């Protein structure tokens, strides 16, 4: 039951973010959700068509929007990736 409740909360967060995020932030979130692991700024820029500078700013904004650390994480090199449950919720919402 707790797992279902947690999933419902994540699903609601994704829906809320879709309404609140700029289009560029949403596209970066989707690119991170579709990735198998962390992505560099260059990889995110290539995937989304935005500049590395824009990608860097938008990832920082995403971390702020979801209070970072848990849902949007960074590897040892500082490359962002999403918590698996959050990534799955974003992918499901997009489909």
As a percent range, the share of helical residues equals 55-70%
DSSP, total strands: 2
Show unreliable segments: none
- What class do helices, strands and sheet pairing give? mainly alpha
Report on the biggest sheet. 2 strands, antiparallel
Mean pLDDT: 91
Distance between the termini: 25 Å
* Number of helical elements: 5
Proportion of residues in extended strands: 5-15%
Strand order of the largest sheet: 1-2
One letter per element, helices H and strands E, the order comes to: HHHHEEH
Principal-axis shape: globular
Structure description:
The structure is a single chain. The protein is built from five helices and two strands; from the N terminus they run ααααββα. The radius of gyration is 13 Å and the shape is globular. It is mostly helical. Strands 1-2 form a two-stranded antiparallel sheet. It has helices at residues 2-20, 23-34, 41-48, 52-65, 84-94, and strands spanning 72-74, 80-82. 25% of the residues are buried.
């Amino acid at each position: 039951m707790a797992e279902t409740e947690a999933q419902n909360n994540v699903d609601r967060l994704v829906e809320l973010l879709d309404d609140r995020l700029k289009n560029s932030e949403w596209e970066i979130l989707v690119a991170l959700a579709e990735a198998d692991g962390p992505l560099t700024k260059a990889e995110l820029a290539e995937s989304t068509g935005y500049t590395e500078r824009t990608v860097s700013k938008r990832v920082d904004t995403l971390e702020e929007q979801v209070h970072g650390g848990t849902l949007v994480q960074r590897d040892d090199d500082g490359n962002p990736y999403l918590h698996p449950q959050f990534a799955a919720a974003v992918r499901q919402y997009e489909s």
